[in-house]
Amino acid sequence: MIKFCYLAIFLILVHHLVAVQSINAAAPKKGVSRNPADFLSLGYYLKKCPEAESIIQQKVGAWIQKDFTLAASIIRLHFHDCAVRGCDASILLNYRGSERAAYVSSSLRGFQMIDDIKETLEKKCPRTVSCADILTAAARDATVFAGGPFWEVPFGRKDGRISIAKEAEMVPQGNENVTALIQLFKAKGLDILDLVTLSGAHTIGRSTCGPFLNRLYNYNGTRKPDPSLNTYYLKLLKKRCRHSTDLVYLDVITPRTFDTVFYTNLKRKAGLLTTDQDLYSDPRTAPFVEAMASQPFLFENQFLVSMTKLGNVQVLTRNEGEVRVNCNYINAR
């Protein structure tokens, strides 16, 4: 395992170098097919709305100061958005039959924060800053306020006009196997390293007991607990999960600290969700878990790379989509 861990560290460093070079690369030459993310830029709002980024940062900080758990909620909301139709703010659309209205989205939070930011930006720069850009930047700022790394967010995303409740089920719910997760990430242009790294966002945040109750009482229909679950952790979870709606921290040791204890927990068989714990039992992902657990700087550096990649998934740019006036509804035509 040690040999594979060193190999994983080497691959992470190479991946990080290639990703950074890609992010900083010059725009493709004329005639070359361009990825929509190529039209995003760090200076997109420099003249249109120069205070946009600082307004988002200040608002996110104020909300998290009132309720620290919102940091994880905003990161999760961003992931749910990008996992369906790309990062187009479709998760924010609020009407019957939308992703937001789906049962699997019922535990999502942070919508009021985004509405607050949008309202302020509309007063400052009407019809300029998209909800997709707001959510992407808010996820970055939430990470920083939680103690995680900072990264530059390129802007220019447009908001989508379509949101379908059934599609919200594409987002992992905590019981998928590693193969299914790898396939989902691959479809979004993300790889195994991104999967392991972005799962590390569970270093903060909470989950309702519903998604993992089967691990406590009836794992795979055996009427017994999941044998891979740490015995002491099992007893703790049974005490805290009286109802499926009860909340427990994803990282039982340092739930309010953005660190690598999440990965250490997996090695101790104290991963809360099946999707998390399986990362350490699957040979394709285990070496990366080992590397992250033993080298915190690798996690932080790779997290900013993977989050940048996530924020660029299937974005709408230029004449695609729109800039919503209200993040909850598409613009009137």
Automatic annotation (TrEMBL):
Catalytic activity from the UniProt record: 2 a phenolic donor + H2O2 = 2 a phenolic radical donor + 2 H2O
Binding site for substrate: P172
Native source organism of the sequence: Juglans regia
Gene name in the database record: LOC109021437
GO cellular component, one term: plant-type cell wall
Cysteine pairs bridged by disulfides in the record: C49-C125, C82-C87, C131-C327, C209-C241
Protein name: Peroxidase
PROSITE patterns in UniProt: PEROXIDASE_1, PEROXIDASE_2, PEROXIDASE_4
Membrane-spanning ranges: none
